Amino acid sequence: ARPGNRFWALLAETGLTPRRLAPAEDALLPGLGLGLTDLAQGVAGQDADIPPGAYAPARLAALVAQIAPRALAFTSLTAARLALGCPRLGAGRLGTDPRFGATLLWALPSPSGLARSHFSADPWHALAAWKRSLA
Question: Which of 1, 4, 54, 107 could make an S-S bridge to 80, C-beta 3.0–4.6 Å?
């Protein structure tokens, strides 16, 4: 993530991680009940820079079927909309989708600095509250 991206700060701010982790500490996430993957593997950058053909929702659905997480959170509304085929999808708790089994889906606003003008951390906090309620 670029310096203006709030991803790691949001994980700590919401309590999903006990402190702000550095990107190099991502191996600690599974021990906290979190995991990371990309909907578009092999490419990086802003949503507008990623070719539509790079998104692989079927690969993600297969990974979710294999791991069976309780929840899957997209950290980009664009990625969630592409993966779920819902162009007007809003942020927050989405429910389930047959392609992802019983996994609860969440769409979170992008923490990218480019999205800051219309960013809300509320869905991130809602996800964290839901995760805490499982304990």
Answer: 107
Distance CA 6, CA 89 (A): 22
pTM recorded for the entire structure: 0.91
Question: Rounded CA gap, 22 and 58, in Å?
Answer: 30
Does residue 135 carry a pLDDT above 90?
no
Q: pLDDT value at position 10?
A: 97
CA 58 to chain CA centroid, nearest Å: 16
Q: Could you give the domains of the chain?
A: 1-17+69-135 (3.40.470.10)
Could you write out the DSSP letters of every residue in 72-89? EEES-HHHHHHHHT-TT-
Which phi and psi angles does 72 have, rounded to 5°?
-130, 120
Say how far apart CA 93 and CA 91 lie, in whole Å.
Answer: 7
Report the relative pairing of strands 92-95 and 104-107 from DSSP bridges: antiparallel
Give per-residue burial for 63-72: e unless 16+ CB within 10 Å, then b: ebeeeebebb
Read off the tokens for 7. Answer: 């991803």
